[in-house]
Write a structure and sequence with these properties.
44% helix, five-stranded mixed β-sheet, 20% strand, 11 helices, alpha/beta, Nucleotidyltransferase, domain 5
């Protein structure tokens, strides 16, 4: 069974061909970093226009690289939400057109489910499992249950981890996207240079990063007011230590509270070197199986969408042509 995956939820256009839910045939990603870098963040209208320009040529290129034709496709999986509505529409309308023309099923994938299923591309993951999702505007602890359904255990009460890293990077004058820049500089800095606070919430499994962000801004501005040089690498290392520390702390609580034997870490921030290392240490200490996708599967890609679509296909869940994108789509309905 060959599924065409399409991902256009934000600022990366991705197309993939996946065979039998496991075998990667082709995976293409067109980044828009060059387009949005001068603005310090994603401009939705520009993102949508770039998707329009490159999506169809990428689908054709994927088929050529895979040695396939349109008639070889068995289904199309496309990101339905959440995301930027204009960007989502480009992918959805393209997928609908192909579904009509080829007479094959249309599978509407939740973007976060896609990130979780990225771990299933490289491993056999038994369920139930705990998923720490750290992707863009999402920071969530999710129980992935038998039957591949989802239950929310904890979420951010304000900013997400990725947003917080990007915002502080912008404040420090680092280029977009900021998270990888902080990770890079942190490797040369002292994580104990300054202790930033980890936010606590009423639900011990929820996250809060707005106070951490404010604390970092005040700390750097305080150094400048005193005429002191801002040690960029040390500030980055200390700030990253607090963000990663919060993620580790809440994951530890969830594992102990619910006795999870398997943990998935996924999403763009899962590419962070410190988070990956600290999670391995936590796994060794608490004796759970750890599944972190390879770096190229952590960031937005269409293989993960195709894999999540494969799970939907096996359950007989397809979209009709009347179904639309949903920029606020819930994973838990």
């Amino acid at each position: 069974m060959i599924i065409l995956g399409i991902e256009t939820s934000c600022d990366e256009t991705a197309v993939a061909l996946l065979k039998d839910g496991k075998e990667e045939l082709v995976s293409l990603v067109s980044s828009q970093v060059d387009l949005h870098q001068k603005y310090g963040g994603v401009v939705p209208e520009l993102a949508s226009r770039r998707h329009l320009e490159v999506l169809v040529p990428m689908i054709k290129e994927a088929l050529i690289r895979g040695g396939l034709d349109f008639k070889d496709l068995d289904a199309i999986a496309v990101t339905r939400g959440p995301g930027l509505v204009g960007a989502l529409l480009v992918g959805m309308e393209t997928a609908k057109a192909l579904s009509i023309a080829l007479g094959i099923p249309l599978l509407g994938v939740h973007h976060i489910a896609g990130h979780i299923y990225a771990a299933f591309l490289e491993n056999e993951v038994s369920l139930p499992a705990l998923a720490l999702v750290v992707s863009g505007g999402h920071t969530e602890l999710i129980e992935v249950q038998e039957g591949e359904s989802f239950r929310l255990l904890g979420t951010t009460r304000d900013d997400a981890a990725g947003e917080t890293l990007d915002k502080i990077a912008r404040f420090l004058g680092l280029p977009y996207p900021g998270g990888p820049q902080i990770d890079r500089l942190s490797k040369k800095g002292d994580p104990l240079f300054h202790k930033f606070p980890i936010g606590e919430t009423e639900n011990p499994l929820d996250f809060s990063f707005s106070g951490l962000k404010t604390s970092a801004i005040y700390f750097v501005e305080g150094l400048k007011k005193k005429g002191e040089t801002v040690p960029l690498e040390d500030v980055c290392a200390s700030f990253q230590e607090a963000v990663v520390g919060s993620l580790i702390q809440k994951t530890r609580r969830a594992v102990k509270k619910c006795s999870f034997k398997r943990v998935i870490v996924c999403g763009g921030v899962a590419a962070n070197s410190s988070l990956r290392e600290r999670m391995k240490e936590l796994s060794s200490k608490l004796k759970f199986e750890l599944f972190i996708p390879s770096i190229h599967l952590c960031t937005d890609n269409a293989l993960m969408i195709a894999r999540a679509g494969y799970a939907l296909f096996k359950k007989g869940i397809t979209l009709s042509l009347q179904d639309d994108v949903d920029p606020n789509l819930s994973l838990y309905d």
